[in-house]
Amino acid sequence: MADIPATPPVLRLEGVRRSFGIGTDVEIEILHGIDLVIEQGEFCALIGPSGSGKSTLLNIIGLLDRATAGKVFIMGADTDSLADAELTRLRSRRIGFVFQNALLIPAFTALENVMMPQLVDRGWPDEAMRRNAESLLGRVGLAARKDNLANAMSGGQQQRVAIARALAMNPALILADEPTGNLDTKSAESVLALMREVNLANRTTFLIVTHNMELARQTDRIIEVVDGRISTGTNTPLLPAVA
């Protein structure tokens, strides 16, 4: 019997570098040859002091920026070989985003906000899209608030809507950038528990950027970026990152 091919890592970085001001007197390299593999189902934290390069790294992982050198693979796809339109399609279908500010459309309802990624991808709304959004809102405990305007919801509720929106395209990877940074302790714990629930139920991979070491220590793996270089560990007690 032929061997069944192994599932490729959700994310693989090989020698990723990023420079700014290329060809000028002020050229500077921010990332210095990053190698990183994150497998399906991992629940990871990305930490590092301000200026360490983690935001630049996150933009490259999220396909919002291109590396100056090296390779970025998403689910085995070599993103360096993709045209901008193909890159946009891969990003919208394989990667979900949750930000510190929920970035919902204030005048839209919770349901309409969750429908947006599918609407952008397909170009028109349909009943299946609505049912999927309703199901996701139910999953994050907001079925009864589907018709509430985003700006009439609490911060914790808005982040739950943002998580539902991030799941709308059933992505392989969710990038969460300080997702609890603006929340009180109770709401932050609730949002983290929800992300972990999604991770375990769907084997959705999470990469959570945070300065909160208490949160980071609740993940399975802490990845630290310092001066544009990376070291990885599993539940390694690290000193709090410098704000």
Task: Record the SSE blueprint.
Elements: E1 11-20, E2 28-38, E3 43-47, H1 54-61, E4 69-74, E5 77-78, H2 84-94, E6 95-98, H3 110-122, H4 127-139, H5 155-166, E7 173-177, H6 185-202, E8 205-209, H7 213-216, E9 221-226, E10 229-233
Parallel strand pairs: 3-8, 3-9, 6-7, 7-8
Antiparallel strand pairs: 1-2, 1-4, 4-5, 9-10
What does this structure look like?
The protein has 243 residues and is of the alpha/beta class. Helix content is 33%, strand content 24%. The protein has 7 helices and 10 strands. A 6-stranded mixed β-sheet has the order 6-7-8-3-9-10. Helix 3 crosses helix 4, helix 3 runs parallel beside helix 5 and helix 5 runs parallel beside helix 6. The radius of gyration is 18 Å and the shape is globular. The C terminus is likely disordered.
Question: Quick summary of this structure?
Answer:
33% of the residues lie in helices and 24% in strands.
By helix and strand content, what is the structural category?
A: alpha/beta
* Backbone CA Rg: 18 Å
How many β-strand runs? 10
Q: What's the N-to-C terminus distance?
A: 55 Å
Estimate the helix proportion, in percent.
25-40%
- What oligomeric state do the depicted chains represent? single chain
Low-confidence blocks of residues: 234-243
Proportion of β residues? 15-25%
Alpha plus pi helix count: 7
Helix-strand pattern: EEEHEEHEHHHEHEHEE
Outline the biggest β-sheet: 6 strands, mixed
Give average pLDDT, whole number: 90
Strand order of the largest sheet: 6-7-8-3-9-10
- Please state the overall shape, judged from the principal axes of the Cα atoms: globular
